[in-house]
Amino acid sequence: MNEFHFVSSMEIVGNTIDIFGVLIMIAGILGATIWFFILMQREGAARAYTSYRQTVGRAILLGLEFLVAGDIIRTVAVSPSPTNVAVLAGIVLIRTFLSFALQLEVEGRWPWQSTPEKSQ
């Protein structure tokens, strides 16, 4: 009976973390959209668009981190079969690639590159 409660609890935890990931993305996109319209009036479309893309990208990156965490919890704690671990590895690889691509798009550098010095 205790194993059943543990598995059920971990399933709930994994799903809750997934929901947080999705909510973070939704909130980030909504907030970025509102800020886009405000910034467009203040500073123009080009500046607003750049800021919008960066903010949406960051929200997606953070949401993806939560989604990966939820998948890991469910796979490791709930059903750690070789097939499920292989599927998780594929999901993590795809999401890692997406994260790298988004970070390159948002920050203009790969995650392993140092932050460029700002000129004064």
The figure for the number of domains is 1
Q: How far apart lie the N and C ends?
A: 64 Å
Annotation, overall tally of beta strands:
0
Work out the strand percent. Answer: under 5%
Radius of gyration: 18 Å
Textual characterization of the structure:
The protein is mainly α and 120 residues long. It has one domain (2-107). It contains three helices and no strands. The protein has helices at 2-43, 45-78, 82-107. The longest helix has 42 residues, at 2-43. 12% of the residues are buried. The model has no long low-confidence stretch (mean pLDDT 84).
Give a quick precis of the structure.
By secondary structure, this protein is mainly α. It has helices spanning 2-43, 45-78, 82-107.
Helix-strand layout with pairing:
Elements lengths: L1 H42 L1 H34 L3 H26 L13
Helix pairs in contact: 1-2, 2-3
Keywords:
elongated; mainly alpha; 120 residues; single chain; 85% helix
